[in-house]
Amino acid sequence: MPDPRPLPDEPLPIDLLNTELIASGRRVDLLADVDGLRTWLEAVGRPELPASPAGLAALHEARAAVRGVLEDAGDDAARRRLNAVLDRGRRREELGDAGPASVVEVRDEADRLAWEAASALLQLLRTDRHRLRACDGHDCVLWFHDTSRSGRRQWCSMATCGNRAKARRHHARSKDGTAKG
Ligand SMILES: [Zn+2]
């Protein structure tokens, strides 16, 4: 199965957000059904997790919460939704026989990845809040974690949105030139 994700190098909560995308002008949900979930679990390197309707519902809920929190930091309802997801699990620290270990415990296995995504979002909010951004591309709904040195990444990808923006600017300039000349 080819990787269906539009951006392969993003952290889990951003990966989750980017399951809602626009392809060929249509809104697509990579997590529309259990088959989609199975493919996505493989793509994010977690093929061992069961692709179940309950897991799908948990990820939908986490996705809405992550989106709400990122789109509007003052959205209390989104914050409560995220906290409800986080409430379903915890990370336990222990010294295992192979050394220090941190074990994620969830009440219901279906919540595991949703919990991990919410927890990873907290980590990103602690250190990199301003580097979690939506693509500036016209009609693009993708998000990214800007890990560039300058912290000025604008586009999900230079090859798509970046080039389209450049072409539009160029087009606007040449139209300008015609009007003046
Ligand atoms: Zn984009």
Low-confidence stretches: none
Distance between the termini: 54 Å
Q: Please give the order of strands in the largest beta sheet.
A: 1-2
Task: Please give the number of β-strands.
Answer: 6
Bound molecules: zinc ion
What keywords describe this structure?
two-stranded antiparallel ribbon; 181 residues; 6 helices; globular; alpha+beta; 17% strand; binds zinc ion
What do you see in this structure?
With 181 residues, the protein is an alpha+beta fold. The chain has a domain at 12-129. The chain has helices at 12-17, 34-43, 53-71, 76-86, 112-128, 158-180; strands at residues 20-23, 26-29, 89-96, 99-106, 132-134, 143-145. The strands form 3 sheets. Strands 1-2 form a two-stranded antiparallel ribbon. A two-stranded antiparallel ribbon has the order 3-4. Strand 3 and strand 4 form a beta hairpin. The mean pLDDT is 93. Bound molecules: zinc ion. Zinc ion binds at residues 135, 137, 140, 142, 155-156, 161.
